[in-house]
Amino acid sequence: MDKHLLVAVSEHRESSAGVRFACSLFNGSAGVRMTLLHVLGTAGQDAAAAAAMQRRAADMLHGVRQWAEGQGVLPADIETLVLPRRYGVLRDIVDTARKGLYDAVVVGGRYLSRLEQMYEDSVSRGLLWESVDFPVWICHQPDASRRNVLLCLDGEEPSYRIADHAGFMLRDCAGHAFTLLHFNRARTAAEEVLERGRMLLEENGVGKDRIETLVMESSDHVESILNVADRGHYAVVAAGRNKRQPDSFFNRLFTRSVTMRLRDNTQRFALWVSQ
C-alpha cells in the first residue's frame, strides 16, 4: 500500500524542510507519494494581484518539485497543489488533509522570536492544537545523516497510534531501526507498554532485529528525550498527544504538554505527533 504525504510549503525557506526531510528519510523508496501544498495569501479584490500570486506559488512549487526529483523522487510520485485561502492557512491544511485521506501532514518549523512565540502561533504550532485525526510531522532543520526512530510510549492510546503509524510508514525502510522509550513508574506496566508497542511494529512488518527498548526514570521527560535523541542521532522522535488541552491562552504558554515543549526544542530531528 502506498504512503501519501501532504507537505505544506510556504514562501519561507524554512518551510521546505519538510520536503528535504521526506526525501532523506525515504531516500527514493518506491511506494511513497508526496503532494506539495501551498495555501495562497490574501489579495483582496485585485484580480491582477491574485493572478500574480498564483503564478509565483506555482513557480515556487515547481522548483521544489524539481529539487525533490533530483533527490530520487519519481515524477509520478510527486504532485503540486495551490489552493486559495478560505478559512486561514491552518484550517485549510487540516481540511485538505481530511478530504484527501493523507497518511500524514508534513510541516516545516520556523524559528520564532520569543515575542512571536507569545503572540503568534506558527502553522506547525497551531496544528498541535487542532483536533486533527492524522499524524503531523514537524521538521526544523533536517540532518540527512540521521537515522532511526525514538518512539516515546506512555501507555496512552495516542502513543500507540503513533507507534502504529511509524511502523506502517517505515516498515520497508530497513535502514531505520526503532527504540521504544518508556519512563518507568512500575516495572510490570513498563513491560506491558513496551510489549504492545513492539507488537504494533511487528504487525506492520518491522522485524524484531530493528526494535530495541529503553526504560528510564526522570523528573523531566522532555529534557531526557532531547538528550537521548541527541546522543543517539535519531532522525525522528515520535510521541502521542492527548486531546485534553488547556483552555486559556496563558495556560497554553505556561502549562504546555510534552509534545508542545518538544516542538519548541526540535532542531535536527523531526517530531512526529499523533492524537
From TrEMBL:
Gene3D superfamilies: 3.40.50.12370. SUPFAM superfamilies: Adenine nucleotide alpha hydrolases-like (SSF52402). Residues 3-139 form the UspA domain. It comes from the Bacteria. InterPro entries: UspA. CDD domains: USP-like. This is UspA domain-containing protein.
